[in-house]
Amino acid sequence: MSKREKKQLIRILISALLYIAAILLPVEGLAKLAVFLVVYGIIGGDILLKACRNILNGQVFDENFLMSVATVGAFFLGEYPEGVAVMLFYQVGEWFQSYAVSKSRRSIAELMDIRPDFANVLRDGQLEQVDPDEVKVGDTVVVKPGERIPLDGIVIEGASSIDTSALTGESVPRDIEAGQAIISGCINQTGRLTIEVTKEFGQSTVAKILELVENASDKKSKSENFITKFARYYTPVVVIAAVLLAVLPPLLTGQAFSIWIERALTFLVISCPCALVISIPLSFFGGIGGASKSGVLVKGSNYLEALAATEVIVFDKTGTLTKGSFAVSSIQPEDMTADELLEIAAYAEDYSNHPIAVSIKKAFGRDVDTTRISDVEEIAGHGVKAVINGKVTLAGNVKLMEREKIPYKSSTSAGTVIHLAIEGKYAGYICIEDEIKADSRQAIQELKAAGIRKTVMLTGDADAVGQKVAGELMLDQAYTELLPADKVDRLEELMKVKSTKGKLIFVGDGINDAPVLARADIGIAMGGLGSDAAIEAADVVIMTDEPSKIATVINLSKKTLRIVRQNIILALGVKGVVLVLGAFGLASMWAAVFSDVGVSVIAILNAIRALNIKK
Ligand code: ADP
Ligand code: MG
Questions:
Q1: Which residues sit opposite 159 in a β-bridge?
Q2: Which DSSP letter does residue 218 get?
Q3: Which ligand is closest in space to the CA of residue 461?
Q4: Domain boundaries of the chain, sorted by first residue
Q5: In the CATH scheme, what architecture does the domain 119-150+152-198 have?
Q6: CA distance 455 to 449
Q7: What is the 3-state secondary structure (H, E, C) of 313-381?
Q8: Which residues form ligand 1's pocket by a CB distance below 6 Å?
Q9: Which fold is adopted by the domain 296-321+437-543?
Q10: Atom 7 (ligand 1): residue with closest C-alpha?
């Protein structure tokens, strides 16, 4: 409970006690009015003030106004206890709402409790504890066991296992050793690590993720916008109805004005759409929180809402359905040794971040002398071209060889083939093999079970490789040998397959597919450990890199929308019934307040369900 909530609770309790005392006090007439006015001032003074201030600002019709008119009206009718009670219950309801909102906010913040408090920087051989903000790129920081990694960097000394669960939801610790990249926000468990910082705090993984989470609720879903619009028309309509109710029946039937004024005031209290206004954003907030609990960042409630309408899912292959870490399965040089060919490939790929390049460099395993490399050009969907030792070197697929008119040997291997050429002469090829991610197959099956109509794979890789993967995963369709621009074209075609209301998801790793990520209705990135571009371009980020999380978040989206619908029906239904009863004098102001507080509480509890997800 926050300080403000505690204060508010104490205020409510004191008012409640005073209220009981006021009822028991044997006073009549003006004395009674004075006593109740004091209690009213304590419990409702701020509401009255807010209502006045809003009127001055030109925003007349809000719930503060409704409550003020209704309770002041009750006083004019001589119903002092009712007036105070209405305000008291209203405050109880408000307290409950703010408690629920901050609780769900807090649980998200706790889940995302990844902000490091300090960094131990090594300066002149001494460790100095500073704010992570003050550390510069190139500084060396030391992280002791039990501490949080403060900044992104590369481990230069030490080995340890790190707990990435706050970032990825993954409970198994990862082993890390010198030479590996490490990201901020994880917890160092066993060993002392010395890290060279590669990014300033503002650019670090932690800062990016925190920013995403903080902004997540800014992007409003259609349902939330509906509420805002609804309230804009609803409130004036209700106020006009109340005025008519107070004036017309007495004029027409000759009944006492006081009866109808009271009914009109009751009608106003009943009409307050609190439950509706609060519970819908809260449900989405809960859904986003539930998703982040399982390692999926949803960047806005609009995306969470759209996910439920998914009809087509398009996957990238490398790094998305497959691990993207290739093992070299064969090296076929023309007239040099296998090791020499691998070395040339590693030099050519040195500047590339493509999973293929990373794997080749890993297979080579030695340091690269960058002074021997110049004029590097990465040709998307083809490969790379670079000058190595003064010789123009090509490394890439068949398309690259054809483009450069170099006769190549075709390989029958089922793996991905990287052909090499030096100074226009074919030098041989390296065959590497990727592995399908452990949960890819399950992911496709779960998506089918969740009602997805079509699953498609787009890849720039060779047809043999692509078809093999698609077959193993039982995808509905696979397009292969695509250039990045072709991927966009295919996506456009697939957009036409779905119904107008249906949504298309593209899932990629952000390498060579950022335009497709942006073009799809919902772009999902494998944010995992690293790729900033993907995290930025995507609407949804899967921190664990597990494709099966897509089905999890689609199901969560459906659950959230179910909760939203239930709350709308509940709130409007109860409201409707009590409003009609109130208009005919069958519901008292008490019933009105109880129904509103009651519905709000039920709606809030229902909304919180969205936070709970099955692991
Ligand atoms: P995908 O992620 O769908 O496999 P990409 O567009 O990333 O497709 O890559 C398509 C193909 O382009 C790869 O399969 C590979 O043959 C070639 N390629 C791209 N980048 C490189 C690179 N750095 N080195 C070698 N080949 C590459
Ligand atoms: Mg890719």
A1: 177
A2: T
A3: 1
A4: 3-109+217-285+558-611, 119-150+152-198, 296-321+437-543, 323-436
A5: Distorted Sandwich (2.70)
A6: 12
A7: EEEEHHHHHECCCCEEEEEEECCCCHHHHHHHHHHHCCCCCCHHHHHHHHHHCCCCCHHHEEEEEEECC
A8: 316-318, 349, 352, 354, 356-357, 381-384, 395-397, 416, 418, 459-461, 484, 511-512
A9: Rossmann fold (3.40.50)
A10: 512
Lowest-pLDDT choice from 317-331, 500-514, 589-603: 589-603
Q: How much distance in Å is there from the Cα of 153 to the middle of ligand 2? A: 24
Which residue in the list 316, 350, 509, 513 is annotated as catalytic?
A: 316
Q: Which residues sit with Cβ closer than 5 angstroms to ligand 2, an ion?
A: 316, 318, 511-512
Residues 6+ apart with CB under 8 A from 445: 474
Residue to mutate (ligand 1; options 397, 435, 465, 511; most atoms within 8 A of CB): 397
Q: Which residues pair with 195 in a beta bridge?
A: 141, 155
CA-based radius of gyration for the chain: 32
Scanning the structure block, which residue is given the tokens 């009015």?
Answer: 33
Q: Residue 371 CA to chain centroid, in angstroms? A: 43
CATH of domain 323-436: 3.40.1110.10
Give CA separation, 531 vs 59, 349, 458, in Å. Answer: 46, 18, 20
| Residue among 609, 611, 602, 610 nearest 276 (CA) | 602
Separation of alpha carbons 91 and 488, rounded Å:
54
Starting at the edge strand found earlier in the chain, the sheet holding 181-182 runs 126-130, 119-123, 140-143, 193-197, 153-157, 181-182
Q: State which of 354, 385, 490 you would mutate to test the pocket of ligand 1, scoring each by most atoms of that ligand within 8 A of its C-beta.
A: 354
Residues 589 and 269: beta-carbon distance below 8 Å: yes
Amino acid at 26: P
Distances (CA, A) of 17 to 23, 40, 61: 10, 12, 31
- Which of 498, 440, 505, 435 minimizes the C-alpha distance to 465? 435
CB 513 within 8 A of CB 484: yes
pLDDT the model gives residue 295: 82
- Give the pLDDT score at 168: 65
* pLDDT score recorded for residue 73: 82
Residue 98: pLDDT over 90 = no
Distance 383 CA to ligand 1 centre (A): 6
- If you measure from the C-alpha of residue 462 to the centroid of ligand 1, how many angstroms do you get, rounded to a whole number? 9
Q: Which amino acid is at 570?
A: L
For the stretch 254-271, pLDDT in tens is 888 888 888 888 787 777
Strand partners, 378: 384
The secondary structure of residue 320, as a DSSP letter, is I
**316 is annotated as an active-site residue:** yes
The pLDDT tens digits of the residues spanning 558-575 come to 999 999 999 889 888 888
- Minimal-distance CA residue to ligand 1 atom 22: 383
554, 613 contact by CB (below 8 A): no
What's 62-124 look like in SS3? CHHHHHHHHHHHHHHCCCHHHHHHHHHHHHHHHHHHHHHHHHHHHHHHHHCCCCCCCEEEEEC
Taken in order 165, 168, 174, 178, the sign of the CA dihedral is negative
